[in-house]
Write a structure and sequence with these properties.
The chain is mainly beta and 76 residues long. It has one domain. It is built from one helix and six strands. It is globular, with a radius of gyration of 11 Å.
Length: 76
């Protein structure tokens, strides 16, 4: 995964964070609708790919984990 454009096209919408954690463990990506980037898991650590293609450490989970509008993006 070199940049934002490497994400897959198949998406599952309106899932909870528990389902997202399962998807991350399978190598898929997750996001919420207003994000231009996504979260992914690398070497057991959840990281962020920004829409600009920059990889960052994961932000605070607490403000997102209760959302029910997550999107899972299948990693091709």
């Amino acid at each position: 995964m070199d940049n934002y454009n490497d994400v897959g096209n198949r998406q599952t919408r309106n899932v909870n964070f528990g389902q997202c954690l399962e998807a991350l463990n399978l190598g898929d990506y997750i996001k919420v609708p207003e994000w231009g980037g996504y979260w992914f898991k690398e070497s057991g650590i959840i990281k962020v790919m920004t829409k600009e293609g920059v990889v960052l450490d994961t932000p605070h989970f607490q403000q997102y984990i209760f959302r029910e509008d997550w999107i899972i993006i299948e990693n091709d």
